[in-house]
Amino acid sequence: MTTKRPDAIVTDLDGSLLGPDGKVGKRDLTAIRRMRELGVPVLPGTGRPPIRARSLVQELGLELALCSNGGCCYDFAQGTSIFLSAMDHGIAQRLMDWLLGEEIPFLIHTPARTYRSPGAERIAKYDDRCEEERFSFTPGMSLEGLEILKLLAVQCDETKVVAQGETLFSKEELAICSSEREFVDFNPAGVTKGNGLRRLAAMKGWRMENILAMGDNFNDQTMLEAVGKSAAPANGMEQIKALAGFVTVPSGENPLAAAIDHFYPRLLEGI
Asked: Three-state secondary structure along the chain?
C-alpha cells in the first residue's frame, strides 16, 4: 500500500540536492519547507563532516544531518552527535603513511576540524563549496585525541586509488569508495550511508521501506539500496541511475521536488 507521505527524506548534497552553483533550487527549497510543515524529517546524507554541513543545514532550517558517509549523525539543534564511528588510530596511521609515500594529498575529517596534508592546501572544487578554518597535518603529527571520521584522498586517480586501497586494507579495517572524480573516501570499517541510515531509522522509528533517498555517486549506493523509495539525478553515475527506482531531473533543476512528486503524488500540490 502506498502511503501519503514518507517517514523521512534523506538526500545527498553535492551533485544531487545542490546544483552546479552550489545552491538549492527554489522549488526544492519550498518542498523542504512543506515537508517540515507536515512533520516529515528532511536531512542531508552526505560525505561531508559536520563542520562542512553546518551552514547549509542551518540555512535550510533543518536539525539533523547524516554526515561522513553515515559515520556520524549530528544534531545541529543540540550541537551534539547522536552517534559517531571513529577510525582506529593504528589503521589511520598506516593509511596516512601509505598516502604520504605515494604523494597523494589527503584531508583528515574530524567533527569540528579538517586537517590537510602537504599538497592539499587548496582544492578548488572542495574549498569553493563552503568556508572552514584550515589546519595543517605534518608527518609525525600525533593522532592522539582525534576522532577521525574519514580520510579523503584528493587530486588522484580515484579508480586506481580505490583498487590499491582495497589490496592494502581489508573490509574489516576500512570502507573505501569513490565519492566523485579525483576523490576517494576512506571510512572506518562498516561505515556506509546505508548502514548509518538504518541505525538512525531504528532510533527514530522510521520504516526503511517508506524513506525516500536521493544520491548520485558510488558513496550513495548503499543508501539507495537500503530504502523503499530511491532516486538519482539525471547527472548521476550510470551505475547509480541503473539501481535507482526513479531517475529525476539533473541537480540544479529541483530534483528533490520532482522525486517527491513521483513517489508521493499531490504531496507538493500548489507549489
From this structure: CCCCCCCEEEECCECCCECCCCCECHHHHHHHHHHHHHCCCEEEECCCCHHHHHHHHHHCCCCEEEEHHHCEEEECCCCEEEEECCCCHHHHHHHHHHHHHCCCCEEEECCCCEEECCCCCCCHHHHCCCCCCEEECCCCCCCCCCCCCEEEECCCCHHHHHHHHHHHCCCCCEEEEEEECCEEEEEECCCCHHHHHHHHHHHHCCCHHHEEEECCCHHHHHHHHHCCEEEEECCCCHHHHHHCCEEECCCCCCHHHHHHHHHCCCCCCCC
The domain made up of 8-84+192-263 is a member of CATH 3.40.50.1000: yes
Question: For the CA atoms of the chain, what is the radius of gyration?
Answer: 18
Q: Which three cell numbers stand for residue 219?
A: 558513496
- pTM of the full structure: 0.93
Largest CA distance in the chain: 59
Alpha carbon distance 260, 120 (integer Å): 38
CATH number assigned to the domain with residue range 89-188, chosen from the 4 options 3.20.20.370, 3.30.1360.180, 3.40.50.1980, 3.30.1240.10: 3.30.1240.10
* Segment 83-95, tens digit of pLDDT: 999 999 999 999 9
Can you list the residues of the chain whose pLDDT is less than 70? 1-3, 131, 133
Question: Do residues 41 and 270 lie in contact, with contact meaning Cβ atoms separated by under 8 Å?
Answer: no
In the chain, domain spans? 8-84+192-263, 89-188
End-to-end CA distance of the chain: 26
